[in-house]
Amino acid sequence: MRVQISWLLSATLLFGATAATAQSFPCASVALEVRDRVREAGACRDATPGDAEPTDAAPASSAAVTVRLSDGTVVRVPREISSITSDGRKRAAVDETAARAKVLPPPEPEASGDPAPAPQKVEVPDGSLAGAAGTTPVTAPPTAAAASSAPAPATDVAPAPAAAPVPASEPTASPAPRGRPPIAFPANAALVLGAGVLLGLLFGALLMRQWLRRREPAADIIAAPAPLYQHQQPVETGAGDVSETGAAPEIRFAARREPGETTIVMAPLRDADQVAIEQASGHHA
Amino acid sequence: MHDAVRLSAPIEVTRDDVERALFEQSTDELAVARVFDRLRGAPAERAAEALNHALEVDIFEVLAQGWARVPAVRSAVQRSALMEVPPALVNLGRHNIASTSRVVLDSSVAQSALPPLTLTLEIVADVLSATLAAREGRIELVALGEASVVARLKYKSVLVKEHATGVSGVLRDPFKRQPSAPDRQASVDIQI
């Protein structure tokens, strides 16, 4: 049992360590000078649609969210504003849609070298492509409708007319940050969770150990063989023909012989002196 | 002299004999049937030891009880007891002496007594000849011819043990001129 508990603890520790180390930091948090090298080394991970990635336009403010209004206008608002206006339920829906979205690589620049804005296309689960182009920044009303319209634009964008391209000076980020909740799942959370699990398992193991210790004395009592019989020498009783064996206190035996009758049968006589009685002479008692 | 008279091989029972007897008893006694499994094995071994002590038969006593029933022997003994006369010698030809006695095995399990196991011991002695002396109201064995003893231990009509042996430790008949055959030292147990 103790070996099993040790294996369980070891497996839990390994699981917790793996979960803690698997949370690599995003490449966006790496300095621009070494980001490529770090990415090639695999020491960081690229921003997924659910991760917040700071844009070049606003490196200090860390993120801006592109929001498509109901009339098709695409605006970029600070993430803080977007998160404030989003409620939890709709935010979850946005996350799910954003997680399934796959960012397509940007198209090749035109041969004319026109630094025209390169609209990014977002492939949504229904197969349609939603073009996200830059537009004139407009202060978006922090309404819930604007922030929670993430799932709807995915379907509404396709029939919508091409929006104004985003200026090259303001490169838009991938649609991922749109529904990104402000609270990212940090590695510390995994550590805390793993530590909690470990503490729980440790507490359970201690309880199990105490329980086993309580059971050991009872098990020893049960396993102790109880001698049923003790071999002893037969004990002769006072009576001549009676013997008693007091070997085990549970089973006792005593045997005796009671005399019966005795008969004698003489063989047929061959002659008259079958029984001869002689008087001894010369012997006196 | 009778102290030297003994069976060549004592009558003994084994654990299997006791278990067989207990089994036969369990068919008649429900109380024994209930604890029969507990009586087997080592308890039966101890019961056999107890029975063997009870089966230590003094063969001279058995023979003397039979000889005392012979009128000539009885009168000689009575006369020797009443008068100071020289010992009377009685020569007996071939005869058979049969003795029947009961061997009782009392047993108790957990302070509860079981019905006693009552066995019947039959001893049949075939004596070729015997020379007795009556002295002071007692029988003395002067000489004993060839004798064989068969002992049977029964539970009711079921034979539990049969034992055949001889008698040793006695002189041959001094009145016979021809030499007698030596005592049979070997004993044969007849397995049932």
Morphology call of chain B: elongated
Number of strands of chain B: 10
Number of helical segments with 4 or more residues of chain B = 6
Query: Strand order, biggest sheet of chain A?
Result: 3-4-5
Number of strands of chain A: 9
Structural class of chain A: alpha+beta
The interface involving the most residues is between: A-B, 43 and 52 residues
- Which regions of chain B have little confidence, pLDDT < 50, spanning 5+ residues? 176-192
Order of helices and strands of chain A: HHEEHHEEEHHHEEEE
Helical proportion of chain B? 25-40%
Cα(first) to Cα(last) distance of chain A is 92 Å
Mean of all residue-level pLDDT scores of chain B: 86
CA radius of gyration of chain B: 20 Å
Number of domains of chain B: 1
Beta-strand residue fraction of chain B = 35-45%
In the predicted model, the low-confidence regions of chain A spanning at least 5 consecutive residues are 52-62, 101-174, 218-241, 280-285
What does the largest sheet of chain A look like?
A: 3 strands, antiparallel
Described by the principal axes of the CA atoms, the overall outline of chain A is: rod-shaped
Share of residues in strands of chain A: 15-25%
Mean of the pLDDT scores of chain A?
59
**Count of helix runs of chain A:** 7
Structural description of this entry:
The complex is a heterodimer of chains A (285) and B (192). With 285 residues, chain A is of the alpha+beta class. Among the domains of chain A are: 1-23 and 187-216; 48-184, no CATH class. Chain A contains seven helices and nine strands, in the order ααββααβββαααββββ. A three-stranded antiparallel beta sheet of chain A has the order 3-4-5. In chain A, strands 6-7-8 form a three-stranded antiparallel beta sheet, with no helix packed on it. In chain A, β7 and β8 (251-266) form a beta hairpin. By secondary structure, chain B is α+β, with helices and mostly antiparallel strands. Chain B has one domain (2-171). In chain B, β6 (130-135) and β7 form a beta hairpin. Residues 176-192 of chain B have low confidence and may be disordered. Chains A and B meet through β7, β8 and β9 of A and α4, α5, β2 and β3 of B.
